[in-house]
Structure formats: structure tokens, C-alpha cells
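re: ur msg from earlier - yeah i can do the zinc ion complex, just paste it... oh wait u already did. ok heres what im feeding in:
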Amino acid sequence: VVSHWCYQSQKDEDPHCQDPRKWYQTYATCKGKKQSPINIVTKNVVLDKSLNPLSFEGYDVKGSSAWDIENNGHTVKVTLDTSPKIGGGGLGRKYKAIEFHLHWGVRVEQQYLPGSEHSIDGEKQAMELHIVHIREDASGIEEAKKYANGVAVLAFFIKIEEENRNYATLISELENIKYKGQTAQMEPLPLSSLIPPKEDLGRYYRYKGSLTTPDCYEGVIWTIFEKPIELSLSQITQFSTVHFDGKNSTPMAENFRPAQFLNEREVYWSSA
Ligand code: B30
Ligand code: ZN
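and the outut:
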């Protein structure tokens, strides 16, 4: 590819890269009618009593070997070695977790401009965690993409609050993956330690959308939890230790896709 896809924030450095408004020129699906992320308008959501709490399997188990953490040039991604699973919650089948990654904003003087992908009534949060799951019978995301509903992503907003010690090991690895393509190993954790306690998860929003980066595959069941994860501002700003590219590139910031049109879709709201 001549010009690689990029986020709006990378345009200063690489004026020829394809920003989100142009992704469709190389990836036609990005112009589809079921794209993600979206702004959720709470007055329009449909209460769905069949959306019971999700069940989690293996979320409390610490990974078996070291986790790979990577700067892939658009996010910080951790590949999972075990396959924690989710089911219930109207998903229709079980899905296994393969990786998680984050999206964030930028620190400007004393403020933090929020960088979540989804928003609720127009309000974005500082960051967003995505735990990416695929159909149990698929070997990887490319195989899962051959199906409708092949992928299920759990999304959690991250708010600026007190320090969250459960994120300390992850954040301490960031200085080892400053540049695109760098990987490091980290001590595995139970996935449950990175999200709010099961009892506090609260309600969630559900809609059918897409991957938020090219190729924008439309077959993703999105679950967006109301209850946020809490990190301190200093923890959040440390994500910009990593850069979009090599040594002289800009710090990775504002790595989110803007909200897409809802079109003919509904957003559902779980009963409890
Ligand atoms: S997201 O959760 O909708 N933000 C992928 C997974 C989840 C989301 C977006 C993309 C994904 O796996 N994409 C295909 C693989 N990637 C490589 C990668 O490691 O992450 C190819 C690529 O875009 O060029 Cu990114
Ligand atoms: Zn994501």
C-alpha cells in the first residue's frame, strides 16, 4: 500500500496517510452501514429483557505463560495465551478472548482530551479498553471474519480517578515498547483484575457493528459496559510513552476513530 491508514492525529507527521475519512478508499467496508464506534443516545435505546448478565469463564485465572505486549503502530496490544470465554448475555454462542488493547486521548496542559471510541449522549471518556473475542471454533481473527457475528468485543470506558494498581505491570512495560513493532513480555494477570468486579459490572449496551480499524469488518457484536474502569491521570498519560512509529515520530495519542452513523440499527440496553 502506498499510503498506510492512520488516525487524524498522525496527519501532521505524514500528510499523505489515509485519515479515517479516507479509509474506505482502500477498505471499501469502512463505508458500510454498520460501522463502529457510535455515539449512544440513551433516550433511543431499546430495553431488551433477554440481555441477561454475561457469564465469564477463565477470567479469574492468571495466564499460564508470559503475555506478549506489542506496539503495533496504532495501539498497545496484549495477546492472550489462555482463552478466557464469555457466553450468555444474548450472545447466542460462546466466544474466546484472544487479545486486548486500548484507545486513548491526549494531555494538553492541565487537561486531558478524552480518547474513547464510543460515547454516551455525546460524552467521551479518557480511554477505552477492548477485549477482543472470536467464535470458539475459529483459529484466529482472520478466520472469524469469514462469519457473520464472528467477533465479539467487550468495551470498557476508563475514567480519570484514583490510581489502579492492577494496571501497574502493564504500564511499566510501555517504556519497553516505545516504537512500532516492538514487543515485550509481561507477567500475566487474571483478566478480571483489569475490569470492574463482576458484581459491579452493571448494565451494558449492545449493538451490531464493526472493527474500528481497517478493514472495518462488519460482524462484531459490541457490548459496552456502563461501569467504567478507573485509572489515575498519571497512569493514563503514560500511554503516550509509546510512539506511532520510530524514534522521531509523534507520541501515540488520539488513536480513536470518530463516531459513525447508526443508520438502520438499534442499540439495546440490558435489563440488569
Ligand atoms: S477493535 O476492537 O474494533 N478496535 C482488530 C481487532 C479489534 C479491533 C480492530 C482491529 C484486528 O485484529 N484487526 C486485524 C489485525 N490487525 C493487526 C493488529 O494486530 O491489530 C491488522 C491491522 O490493523 O493492520 Cu490492527
Ligand atoms: Zn479497539
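cool cool. The mean pLDDT is 97. ping me if u need the other ligands too
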